[in-house]
Amino acid sequence: MKTYGGWAGKVLRVDLSTGRSRTEETVDKYKDYLGGTGIGYKVMWDEVPAGTKPHDPGNKIIFAVGPLAGTGAPCNGRIAITTLWPTCAPKPLVATGHMGGHFAAELKYAGYDAIVIEGKADHPVWLSVADGKVEVKDGRHLWGEGIRRTTAAISQIMGPEAVVAAIGPAGENLVPMSNVMNSISHSAGGAGSVMGSKNLKAIGVRGTGSVRIGGNKDEWEKLVKYHLSLLGANNQHVVPNAPQPWAEFWSPGTRWVGSKGRAWGAAAPPIETGTCEPHNLNRIAYRTNNAAFYLGDAAWQYTVRGNGCTGCPIRCHTMVKMPAVASKYGISEMGQNTCMGLLFGWVFFKSFPAGLDGRANMETCMVGMHLADDLGIWCNYGQLQRDFQKLYYEGHIKAKLGEKEFKSYSWDKYEKGDPSFLFELLPRIAAKEGELACALGLGTGYLLERWSISEAEWGKDHDLAYWKMGHPKHHSCEEVGQCGTLINLMYNRDPQCHSHVNFIRNGLPLQVQKKLAAEIWGAPEAVDAIGAYTPMHPSKARMAKWSVLRKELHDSLSLCNWMGPWVASPLKERGYRGDDSLESMLYSVATGDKLDRQELDRVAERIFVLHRALTIRDMGTKEMRARHDLIPEWAFEDESGKAPFTKGTTRMDRKDVETAKDMFYDELGWDRATGAPTAEAYRKAGMGDVAIELDRRNLLPG
Amino acid sequence: MGSGCERDRSSSSASGLAGAVGLCSRRQFLKVGGLSVIGMSALGPLLARGAVKPLIIMEQAQGIVIGDPTKCVGCRRCELACTEFNDGKAAPTLARIKVDRNLNFGPKGVFAGQRGQGNWGNGLVVQDLCKQCPHPVPCADACPNDAIVVAPPVKARVVDPDKCTGCKMCLRACPWEMISFDQDSGKATKCNLCGGKPKCVEACPAQSLTYLPWRDLTDKVPVRTAPLAALSPEKSAACQECHKR
Predict the structure, then answer these.
(1) Are residues B93 and B207 in the same domain?
(2) Which residue in B has a C-alpha nearest to residue A316's C-alpha?
(3) Cβ-nearest to B75 among A160, A208, A308
(4) pLDDT along chain A (702 residues), means of 10
(5) How many pairs of residues across A and B have Cβ atoms under 8 Å apart?
(6) Would you say A565 and A557 are in contact if contact means Cβ atoms under 8 Å apart?
(7) Which of chain A's ends, N or C, has fewer CB atoms near its CB within 10 Å?
(8) Is the reported ipTM for this assembly greater than 0.90?
(9) Does B81 sit within 8 Å of A312, measured CB to CB?
(10) Are B76 and B187 within one domain?
């Protein structure tokens, strides 16, 4: 048998019901699905029957990476976690969460491409994976502990280099809105309670092995440096957000915030980020500071440095130091996170004493991170906090809670924007203490059901950003028109796809974007300015298809879809072109299995179509168009009454969106009437067996 | 005596220096295969019995990699560049720059907790780097096969894989624990400064590593371990000849 590089070679299976583990050969069994979500969907399809519930012992949870994890390919630090999603409503379906940090690489160095957790332990345990030594250990002394203490305790046993993915009390208590977290701040939302249901507190991994590059090492070095040369800042924003001496363009909205005069102020001594000239590959880490991007210039003085995942030069997890919070709230002065993790506490509140830009919002972020990242509470991309605001200010909370419980919260503190309110709320969510905490912990879908609020009401509210099935939009029509809308139809939670938005928000002027779009998706009409949309066009459907395929490809190869793809670059001499073949080049040299862009995209399509098949099988209907690919009402409305396709509105047109679906289904070879893949589409994806199984269940169109 | 040296070198392989050096006076140097060794007359009786090898004094390295912990962002691209571009595999435990072990808790380890360094502490990530030691070169002294030699063009101390038998004595000898072991080849390996263009320096996205003219950091950087067990009693005795107070 051919020996490939890239893959570690083994998939580890641990049955917690028996305490036994075994391995299988990755390449033999899963090469056609690469890794990551590919392995996850395949295991779910083959082994977890329709009708299984998320917390059943029969559900499995798959931690999987691909051939690029642990290598020097830039941005390879994320691991995909696939399971039945407890917050997916009205019926839990397959979905994935993704952790950055150092777990992905460490798993590879330990010799595994995936860990499949099966069954349920009869008492709390944790899993120790130290190279070839796999042990299910008694975890009773860790049960009830926060993620931080759990991690420290396991590190004391396994050594300081071990990477620990743990759940907090929220996951233990089967709170659906819970996460699993490694390396302090790198979480995968939604999967915590599935681990909790298996009595699995944590997985500690220590690997001393290696990932072999299958191809020529000099070629690999050249390729890695080429990839680095095309990188922008976080989300592959390729234009700085302030004028720089080298830059032809600048755009105030980008995440390329490094600049002369801006410094990591809490480093000792402070470090100026400088002009971050794009050809200087030794300054890539200074381009991004997500604390400053989200919280404004005030965050620079608290910035210690950038942090992030293994092998990623883009440090999107900003580490901040705020001594004031130690004395004020009794929490660590150090904090770190990115995006919604960073904003976890802040977005609960509508107002702060000194306004939204005051220092209090930063303190609120510190308190939020301190609590949520230890208790293991998931925010559902901010839906938890948006729901909370709406429920409070519209009187739902007062109406649903008994007087005693209502009065047990300091609502005056909440209204004033006092972060100490979070000490009252968050531990109760993790402990399922009281009606409010229980309801919030369910996730939006089941919360609405419990409190007899119609989903349609939630779907009407623009600011709420709720999309469907218990989850919010994630870069939908508000940023990427029809393409964003289509992507938000496809998944069973928020889609977590950045292929499209990373391009739209990269900071390049529209005319440059259109030129690149014509090369990539066949026509300049593929892209519009945000809020100046034009009617549906086949190139938009191509862009949408490309976006989801790249997402699945990244999630399976282990590249970060929060960073890639890299089809635009900061390089003027390239006309700002990136390279759409990076993924296939990296795959080919890392594994030694040569596939070109189209061939690898076909593998990505197989993975994506398998996700669709799982959704159809587990929903028990092929009527995806009517029952799954749903759009909330707010997408079709404009608060000031502007018509679709007029400047200044992101409003979609109903008929146009139906055209968009037609074109998108056509691109994939799916049936227009049902939105389900045809038997032919499955066969073309190399999954004739899936078609046969669905046909047996009468779930094939036509 | 000079002729004696010449005569003996001709009959001595690089790994069989002991006999040759035994004939040289205390101040005479002999260069064989990139190695400089000094024999000491005081060791005459021991050497005559062939019981020990002489202490090894090497030409000074020309360069050294210096790390700035305040700038390290903990991405470990240095470890990956070191091993992928030199060895064709991503293998942090094999890397000759060592960041991972300090990444989470700092050099004091997990029990330092949040009062320590690293991602769990104050954020500082110390990059452990080879000092390219002047005499004594602990790893070279400890090697029973004289497999640690000076290599051109920048005179880094490197492991000669042909001579290395994988005994790991050098791993125990380095006070900074900078020698790595390649599990696949069964041999030790250490920083060779990549011939003067260190891959780690090139790979750092935060400019936290610098390649500079060699300077002696052996008395400035705290050691990680007490390397007592690695040196034979005879060699220890020999050391005391020069280093006695």
Answers:
(1) yes
(2) B73
(3) A308
(4) 89 98 98 98 98 98 98 98 98 98 98 98 98 98 98 97 98 98 95 98 98 98 98 98 97 97 96 97 98 93 97 97 96 95 95 76 94 98 98 98 98 96 98 98 98 98 97 97 98 98 98 98 98 97 98 98 97 98 98 98 98 98 98 97 96 98 98 98 98 98 91
(5) 138
(6) no
(7) N
(8) yes
(9) no
(10) yes
